[in-house]
Each structure stands twice: as structure tokens, then as C-alpha cells.
Amino acid sequence: MTSSELAREALPRKIVRKIQHSLGPWGVFIEGFIRHPVMVGSIIPSSRFTINKMLSRVKWDECKLFVEYGPGVGTFCRPVLDRLSRDGALIVIDTNPLYIDYLRRTITDSRFTAVLGSAADVEDIVRAHGHEKADYVLSGLPFSTLPAGVGPAIADATHRVIRPGGAFLVYQFTSRARDFMGRHFTRIESDFELLNVMPCFLFWGWKDEEAA
């Protein structure tokens, strides 16, 4: 490839970086959606109404490890860290290196860890960071568009990693996520948030105290 061809190829990347810089986290979020649309639930980050309602049922005084799947550019990360105790930990897992790199650069809280990997491997990831169980797991992953078998594998691993008394928190644009949750979580609370683009379903799947 000639130098002129390399220059022409580099020009669009420069334009993308310039747009990203002007848009801030929105630019990173949109690029991540364009690159991996199947793995990103929405091109619009969740509203503060969704965030507040989703986190309202967490018993923060009992939370030592909070895990999030598909954190994007950190829409939930900062609200979780604001509520989390000083000795708590937040681990986020995403398959998109663009998001993980952005989060590692912009969130410097010592309680925060961003992992490039699959939510289906949550048990190994949790153990690798010195924990046995998670108190709560949050997910905005689009279960209806995930590759075949991935959704059930994530639900299986999530149920195993959550401690008895903990919960799986899920927000989705369709109610299909409840089907994945219902195979493991017998007590599921639900709600709906209109003030979100798009309006979304909210679910809290509680793991019974006596569950192994």
C-alpha cells in the first residue's frame, strides 16, 4: 500500500476520533453500537429514571460485590459507585474493547474493575478478583439478539455466582428476558419505565436464601 493510500485510509479514522472527542462518551457509545450492534441493547444510554428505579431495590448496606454486564460507557457505573460502601467492589464485564478501554481511562475509583470478557465466564472472573459470590448482578444485554445458546449460558452462570439472598437485575426493551430468568429465579419482581428511550421492562430475580 502506497503512502497516499495509507493517508486516505487514515483520514476516516481521524474524522471518527474528532467526532468522538466532540461528543465525549456519546461518541464512544455510538461507535461501540455501530461496531457490535448485536451485543449492545440500545444506541441511547439508559435514563436517570431507569437507573434510579433499577437500583432502588438493592440493599446497599449488604452489598460487597456488584457485577454489571455490558456497562457501555458507564451509565450505571457511577451511580452504583455512589451508592456502594467504601469496602465494596464493582466489576463490569464487556466483550467490546472500545468500552473497556474507555472505562479504564475514565473511572479511577479503586473499587472499580473493568474486564474484557464474556458474562458467561462471570464465575471465573469473580474468583479471579478474590471473591466467591456476587451480591447483585445487573444486565442490560439484549437477550433476544444474543447468539444461540449465549443467553441461557449467561443465566446459568449468573444464578450460580449470586449468593443466596442476592438478585439478578435486568432491564430490557422486551419481556423475553424474564423467560431466561424464570428457569432459575422463582421469585421475579417486575416494573416498567416509560421515561426511557425506548421505554423498558425492569426485572429483579431474587435467589432464595435456601438456594445453593
Task: Write up this protein.
The chain has helices spanning 3-23, 25-35, 48-55, 77-83, 97-106, 122-128, 150-161, 177-182; strands at 65-69, 89-94, 112-116, 134-139, 162-172, 187-193, 200-206. It has two domains: 11-41, no CATH class; 48-207, Vaccinia Virus protein VP39 (Rossmann fold, 3-Layer(aba) Sandwich), CATH 3.40.50. Helices cover 39% and strands 22% of the residues. The chain has a seven-stranded mixed sheet, with helices on both faces. With 212 residues, the protein is an alpha/beta fold. Helix 1 packs across helix 2 (25-35). It is built from eight helices and seven strands, in the order H-H-H-E-H-E-H-E-H-E-H-E-H-E-E. One of its GO terms (biological process) is methylation. Keywords: Methyltransferase, Transferase. This is Phospholipid N-methyltransferase.
